[in-house]
Amino acid sequence: MAKFIVTIKQSGFKHGVAFEKGMSVDVITQFPTNPVIHNQGKAVNDAFLRIYGIDLKKVGLLSLSYLDVKQV
């Protein structure tokens, strides 16, 4: 099992959704691979939906350009 902290890199407003730099979630995966890349980022998207109500995939933020990933 691997634990990752995924954080939004910059603030903005896109497709009617506001997001702030520093918004972060903890993601625990069975594999030590980057959760944004693994399984199309489903675990990361689910975590942001659950905590902030933001669908990163729909807004277009589910990419390493917008997200910082650190393994803990």
Provide a descriptive summary of the structure in words.
- The chain has a three-stranded antiparallel beta sheet with strand order 4-1-5, with helices on one face.
- The protein has helices at residues 42-52, 56-59; strands at residues 2-8, 12-14, 17-19, 24-29, 67-71.
- The model has no long low-confidence stretch (mean pLDDT 95).
- With 72 residues, it is α+β, with helices and mostly antiparallel strands.
- The N and C termini lie close together (11 Å).
- It has one domain (2-71).
- Helices cover 21% and strands 33% of the residues.
Give the distance, in angstroms, between the N- and C-terminal Cα atoms.
11 Å
Task: Round the mean pLDDT to the nearest integer and report it.
Answer: 95
Strand content: 25-35%
Would you report the number of β strands? 5
Which geometry do the CA atoms define?
globular
Poorly predicted parts: none
User: How would you classify the helix and strand content by structural class?
Assistant: alpha+beta
Helix content: 10-25%
How many structurally independent domains?
1
H/E topology pattern: EEEEHHE
Largest sheet: 3 strands, antiparallel
- What's the Cα radius of gyration? 11 Å
How many helix segments?
A: 2
- Order of the strands making up the biggest sheet: 4-1-5
